Amino acid sequence: MSVPSAAVVTVSDRCSRGEAEDRSGPLLVQLLAEAGLHDVVTLVVPDGAGSVRDALTTVLGQGARLVLTTGGTGLAPRDLTPEGTREVLELEVPGLAEAIRRYGADHGVPTAVLSRGLAGVASGSGGRALVVNLPGSTGGVRDGAAVLLPLWPHLRSQLDGGDH
Predict the structure, then answer these.
(1) Which of 16, 57, 61, 92 is the least buried, fewest Cβ under 10 Å from its Cβ?
(2) Residue 164's pLDDT is what?
(3) Do residues 67 and 132 lie in contact, with contact meaning Cβ atoms separated by under 8 Å?
(4) Considering the domain boundaries, does residue 1 fall inside one?
(5) Per residue of the chain (164 residues), what is the pLDDT tens digit?
(6) What are phi and psi of 80, to 5 degrees?
(7) Would you say residue 113 lies in a domain?
(8) Residue 93, domain member (yes or no)
(9) What is the CATH number for 55?
(10) Nearest-CA neighbor of 8 among 71, 78, 68?
(11) CB environment 40-49: b (16+ within 10 A), e (fewer)
């Protein structure tokens, strides 16, 4: 198995049970491919902090350097993606999460500010990795990718020890 350059983790009770189609995860894979990231591992897990933590630990252990989650960032009782993510982060990058929320709000989605998604750095078998929580909607995924993907080359360089 090749080492993934990125991972997409869809967090959804309904998708994990096969009751709903995952639309945001495949869209993220497509957007990553358009940005030149082709070796992408995908997982679909139920909502909850433990399932998110375990999924992140798995893909980080596989060597993914960019890990994007979709779903579970809202205010519903089982929306615990940020809590599970926080368990694996070594340092948070709040400006990136804020920029994603701001981008959505500035582009006509006032509810974008309700996302509790995190962004930060975690360690894995491939070295330091960036982990970012995105909303579960396709619009939220597009907005997050619009902010994040242009920054990825610089972020990757910094994760690898590059200068500012």
Answers:
(1) 61
(2) 67
(3) yes
(4) no
(5) 467 799 999 999 999 999 999 999 999 999 999 999 999 999 999 999 999 999 999 999 999 999 999 999 999 999 999 999 999 999 999 999 999 999 999 999 999 999 999 999 999 999 999 999 999 999 999 999 999 999 999 999 999 998 76
(6) -120, 25
(7) yes
(8) yes
(9) 3.40.980.10
(10) 68
(11) bbbbbbbbbb
Q: Say if 127 falls within a structural domain.
A: yes
Which range of residues forms the domain containing residue 126? 6-159
User: Residue 147: which residues within 8 A CB-CB, separation 6 or more?
Assistant: 96, 99, 100, 103
* Crossing angle (nearest 10°) for helices 138-148 and 24-34: 30
Q: How many domains does one find in the chain?
A: 1
Helix (H) or strand (E) holding 159: helix 152-159
The 3-state DSSP class for residue 124 equals strand
CA distances in angstroms from 54 to 48, 88, 107, listed in the order given? 10, 9, 33
Task: Determine contact, residues 7/66, Cβ cutoff 8 Å.
Answer: yes
- Which residue has 């690898």 as its token pair? 160
Q: Which two tokens stand for residue 80?
A: 């615990």
